[in-house]
Amino acid sequence: MAKILITGGTGLVGTRLTQLLIERKHDVRVLSRSPRLENEFMWDISKGFIADKAIENIEYIIHLAGAGIADKRWTKERKKVIIASRVDTANLVFQKIKEKNISLKGFISSSGSNYYGATTTAIIHKESDPAGIDFLGVVCQEWEAAATQFQKRDIPVTILRTGVVLSKKGGALEKMKTPVISPLGSGKQFMPWIHIDDLCAMFIKTVEENISGVYNAVAPEHSNSNAFSKTLAKVLKRVFIPIAVPGFLLKLVFGELAVILLQGSRLSSKKITDTGFSFKYDTLKKALESLN
């Protein structure tokens, strides 16, 4: 049984991960701005505050905190919030760990599959590939730098570069379940994805097997927008129209944010499977059927 603290534990992934960790008899604590449950503890970034009981005798920290990338248009202010909500939170946790002289067994952080930049290329990105120079590439670099600072205290760091998380309620999939389903833009851009339970299983494996390093947290099957839309329509028994939603229309509606809908490359999941990790939902059809 490990003592685990989760930032962003009340979000989509955090809620499911907390549930699965508790089922496996781990002691899970969650940082929250408005704690309600017995295992939730107050933190306030603006005041640099974390409840002492939250980090008492803690062994692992899973860092999931961060404002939603696709929740609002990317204004100058929103971009600052997206970065600060990931970096400042990690910095605060690091500061408290340092103050209390806590020797963690591991710091595990989420990152984004857009680390390599929001581009559509023939490359299948491996973890050793360079970061993108666009906004999302910069977000992920700063996010990961905030995580790797824990190595200064000889704390093993694990980073999971996460694709689009597919879940039954909430998240991207819910927004895709329209009466008529069509691809977006060229339809050729890839959408790295992962089933929420496979992602949670990765986080659990990093804790239980002390796995460190950087890993692409994406399913092994590559799907572009056209294939994804076709499979989704088939599973949901909805109408599929092969005529794509024009890119210019998405840019009008979403502004710069549209890039995450219109661009995307493939990511390799070989490094995580080489650790012995096995995907329960290795194909899109299997994943969508389990969530329908």
Description:
- The chain has about 290 residues and is an alpha/beta fold.
- It is about 35% helix and about 20% strand.
- The protein is built from 11 helices and 14 strands.
- It has an 8-stranded mixed sheet with strand order 4-3-2-1-5-6-8-12, sandwiched between helices. A two-stranded parallel ribbon has the order 7-14.
- Strand 1 (about 5), helix 1 and strand 2 form a beta-alpha-beta unit.
- It is globular and about 60 Å long.
Features:
292 residues; eight-stranded mixed β-sheet
List the helices and strands in order: EHEEEHEHEEHEEHEEHEHEHHEHH
Individual helix count: 11
Number of extended strands: 14
Alpha-beta classification: alpha/beta
Distance between the termini: 33 Å
| C-alpha Rg (nearest Å) | 19 Å
What is the percentage of strand-forming residues?
15-25%
The backbone outline, from C-alpha atoms, is globular
How would a crystallographer describe the biggest sheet?
8 strands, mixed
- Largest sheet: spatial strand order: 4-3-2-1-5-6-8-12
Mean pLDDT: 96
Classify the helix fraction into a percent range: 25-40%
| Poorly predicted segments | none
Q: How would the blueprint of this fold be written?
A:
Layout (H helix, E strand, L loop, with lengths): L2 E5 L4 H12 L3 E6 L7 E5 L4 E2 L1 H4 L4 E4 L12 H24 L6 E7 L11 E2 L9 H14 L8 E6 L1 E3 L4 H6 L3 E2 L11 E3 H13 L4 E5 L7 H12 L2 E2 L6 H8 L4 H4 L3 E2 L2 H4 L10 H8 L1
Parallel strand pairs: 1-2, 1-5, 2-3, 5-6, 6-8, 7-14, 8-12, 9-11, 10-13
Antiparallel strand pairs: 3-4
Helix pairs in contact: 1-6, 3-4, 7-11
